[in-house]
Amino acid sequence: MRADLSVLRRFGRDHSGAGALEFALISPALIFMIIGVIQISLALYKGSTVQWIAERAARVAMIDASVDAAALTQLIESDLAEMGEDLEVQVVFQVDNTGAVPVGRIQVDYSYPVALPLVETFYATFSVDSVVPMPQA
To answer: Does the residue 124 lie in any domain?
Structure first.
């Protein structure tokens, strides 16, 4: 606490303006980095959300043999809406019956726009791929 006060007093006595000039030079880069970290964090959070929902849909497919791609797409979109996410996702669901045990593969893709100041908007693309054994009829 005492050290904080001495720093504030010393800063208050400094009339040369060097501190203000240094801050003016560094602050744009600092603000850019802070906004970038926030944007990348949001993209990773939404990617984690899509992964969790895709794995949940894969568990539903593993339990219910009658589920199809349309039902899984509806389940994923309703889960995203329930969580308050307005993400556009592409869902692909295929069942492979060539082996002894049929397996279902669900793939969910989405792109998140990352908007940074002074930089063209780019998209962070995430893809979740889950393979689960399917119940035999």
So the answer is: yes
Of 112, 137, 104, nearest in space to 40 by CA: 112
Residues 6+ apart with CB under 8 A from 5: none
Please give the tally of structural domains in the chain.
Answer: 1
Selection from 54, 70, 66, 40 nearest residue 105 by Cα: 54
Residue-number span of the structural domain to which 45 is assigned: 17-133
pLDDT value at residue 34: 95
Residue 24 within a domain: yes
Res. 95: pLDDT tops 70: yes
In three-state secondary structure terms, 23 is helix
Helix/strand/coil for 1: coil
Percent of the chain with pLDDT over 70: 93
Q: What is the pLDDT of residues 41-75, one digit of tens each?
A: 998 998 898 899 999 999 998 888 788 888 888 99
Task: Say how far apart CA 97 and CA 101 lie, in whole Å.
Answer: 7
- The residues facing 124 across adjacent strands are 112
Does residue 8 fall inside a structural domain? no
Residue 10 lies in a domain: no
CA 69 to chain centre: 23
